Amino acid sequence: MQHYSDELKAKILTEFKQKQSVTTLSKQYIISRTTIYRWLKETEIAEKYSSINNKEINRLLRRIERLKEIIQIINEANCLPSAPLKERLYALEKIYGTHSVHVLCEALNVDRGTFYNHIFRNKKTNTMYAQQREVLRVAIQKVYDENRQIFGAGKITAILKEQGYVTSEDTVRRLMADMGLTSIRQRAKALYEKERKAYCKNRVNQNFTAIAPNQIWVSDVTCYSFQERNYYICVILDLFSRMVIGYKISYKNSTQLVKSTFKIAYAFRNPHKGLIFHTDRGASYKSYTFMSYLKSYGIVQSFSRAHIPYDNSVVESFFSSMKREELYRRKYKSEKELRDAIDEYIEFYNLKRPHSSNNYKTPASKESEYLSK
To answer: What residues have CB less than 8 Å from 192, skipping those under 6 apart?
Structure first.
């Protein structure tokens, strides 16, 4: 292949611009027309891109990154822009919160208003969106507790992604705020001062004995997952006999759940003022609404120390027994069957199951013995 100097190329291109034809130049310099046309094309391309400034380059780079993100969304959603609208909406709903809504909608060619209507309409009912958020809440709480309540949204998001969850830091931060979770590092001093306040006292101090019924009640909430849904079970036990005196099952762990459970126990036992109600430091038990409600009945609250699960081990032990002896052993076919099983187990626990702290009497027998005296 023959090589030509840059000076010759420049001379021929200059004469071409001065209206010399390619045929004339080919004959004059004994160079093939194909070669001259190739030089002209290369020059045209070079001149075109030499005019692009830094602003245009940055715009093109941003567009490339956006296209990469769109490809990633299509892969994560496992759905094509040509799919029916309903399929595209539900596909985007699965990964809502992992990317901006603008890019999500652009990726699957969905109008943003249509998508927002779909999301906020579905939030009001038991949808995949609500279920996924509830699953994410449980995962956040687990990571938060397992790491001594030190981690904030950034670290928790990184751990969740390592575990295979599809989420974003903004989503985790919003859910943590909704759950009342903040990094203990940011509020260590405030927690220390709060610890000193009287209403946070631990009045039980792992002394899990009572000489009569209705002196000390203990309570907690546990979560059990069934058919891709979480069920929160709140129980109240009388420390004297370990009898379950109130329980309730809910789809949400909330102040309403613990308050309604307490109402059941209170109506059943009708205790005197001065009853000690001992729990962990869950947000529901420490909410203003619940604390004010107990105060109106003359109930004295007691709280476990932070990060010391043994301070509420009686209820922890009950939940462990119920899960190992009932919930983990059976496969339920429906929510009704699950609820019936919990009812039956608690009845069995109170009436037929001996308890070591009662000298192997059942809770019901221990209370009957006390009343007979």
So the answer is: none
